[in-house]
């Protein structure tokens, strides 16, 4: 849970790294606080970060750098797929990943499966630039558990993005082999997945576990990262898997021109950033790519 202490909001959680670390942000104003059926939801305004959404003591979105995570979660898989038409996002009730997906002309349908309707309501009010994706005719919002939803899907999506930000509580089941198996079944031929891949320092053993079981299921698996000051480790990872053995995550199939980047208002993602995000420090590479 977050601890509101005078002007400070301190992220504290049972989940690493916040179980051993307190990450505090000074608040200008507390905008919202409630306990929904699933989690504690806090929104506050901060001078440094803008509006910030905190769920169960973990920062999910901050206006300062939300575009980093959302652009990467959308563009890494979509620019490695030749023609993604149907995309599923599990979690992501803020609408940020959907907003970036909808910028891709090939996309005909985006399903957002979010367990907590209250997150969507709060984001519509305090993060309207993210939640605007919910009013696009191509977006379908399903309120429900992504684990159950996935079990019912078969050859339905070109790309599946899992955007939970936590690894305990309601999101725990989104990080195990059973769920990855369901995603594989839900993909169309040559489909791709992109999951939030935690950070490389505090969560390396967790990332290794994800990569180990993913390699049993998918012929191509890769890990990249991006710089995100609003998440305590300062960066966040992305796990990408493809059912197509010819996929090369490190070299996007679709590269973007300067004009395309301007039209899509991309502030972080570029084709160069795409290639660079998979270049890992030696000590991490040795752990994640032992062969
Ligand atoms: N986009 C954010 C970011 O920048 O990091 C993170 C997304 S955040 C809004 C994660 C969402 O996943 C939460 O709204 C949470 O309710 C949802 N979620 C967690 N477990 C889920 C599950 N099992 N099924 C569907 N949604 C889930």
UniProtKB/TrEMBL annotation:
Key words, A-Z: Polyamine biosynthesis, Transferase
Keyword Transmembrane helix part of the UniProt annotation: no
Highest taxon listed in the record's lineage: Eukaryota
GO cellular component: cytosol
Pfam families (UniProt xref): Spermine_synt_N, Spermine_synth
Record bears the keyword Transferase: yes
Entries under PROSITE patterns matching the protein: PABS_1, PABS_2
GO molecular function (one): spermidine synthase activity
PABS domain location: 15-243
Similarity annotation: Belongs to the spermidine/spermine synthase family.
Protein name: Spermidine synthase
């Amino acid at each position: 849970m977050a601890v509101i202490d005078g002007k400070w909001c301190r992220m504290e959680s049972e989940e690493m790294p916040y179980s051993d670390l307190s990450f505090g942000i000074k608040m200008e104003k507390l905008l919202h606080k409630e306990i929904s059926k699933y989690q504690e939801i806090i929104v506050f305004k901060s001078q440094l970060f803008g509006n910030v959404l905190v769920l169960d003591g973990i920062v999910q979105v901050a206006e300062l750098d939300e575009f980093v995570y959302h652009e990467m979660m959308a563009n890494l898989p979509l620019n490695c797929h030749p023609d993604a038409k149907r995309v599923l996002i599990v979690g992501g009730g803020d609408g940020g990943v959907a907003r970036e997906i909808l910028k891709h002309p090939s996309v005909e349908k985006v399903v957002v499966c979010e367990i907590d309707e209250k997150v969507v309501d709060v984001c519509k009010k305090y993060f309207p630039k993210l939640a605007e994706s919910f009013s696009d005719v191509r977006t379908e919002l399903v309120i429900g558990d992504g684990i159950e939803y996935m079990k019912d899907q078969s050859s339905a999506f070109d790309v599946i993005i899992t955007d939970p930000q936590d690894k305990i509580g309601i999101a725990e089941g989104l990080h195990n082999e059973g769920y990855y198996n369901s995603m594989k079944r839900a993909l169309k031929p040559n489909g791709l997945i992109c999951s939030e891949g935690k950070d490389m320092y505090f969560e390396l053993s967790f990332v290794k576990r994800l990569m180990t079981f993913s390699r049993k299921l998918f012929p191509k698996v890769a890990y990249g990262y991006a710089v995100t000051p609003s998440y305590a480790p300062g960066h966040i990872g992305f796990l990408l898997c493809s059912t197509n053995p010819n996929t090369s995550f490190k070299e996007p199939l679709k590269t973007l021109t300067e004009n395309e980047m301007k039209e899509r208002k991309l502030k972080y993602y570029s084709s160069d950033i795409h290639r660079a995000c998979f270049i890992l420090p030696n000590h991490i590479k040795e752990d994640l790519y032992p062969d």
